[in-house]
Write a structure and sequence with these properties.
This protein is about 40% helix and about 0% strand. It has three helices and no strands. The chain is flat, with a radius of gyration of 14 Å. The relative contact order is 0.16.
Length: about 70
Amino acid sequence: IAERFGAPVIDLANQMPRDSRYYYDLAHHNNDGAKLVAKIVFAELCPILARSFEALATSACPVADTLAPRE
């Protein structure tokens, strides 16, 4: 559906480490998991928003590798 409408997709299932440090159970993130989700979403959305609203951008997006470590 996203491709059909040209909407971006953030595949958290692929980007979140499979590590119990980030989950309460098999599906729900704990506080550390929620922080990592926020970093991943920010890293994915920042370049999209910067391109869409170039005139409003105040700084460059940080490099994704510095935000969300892949484990």
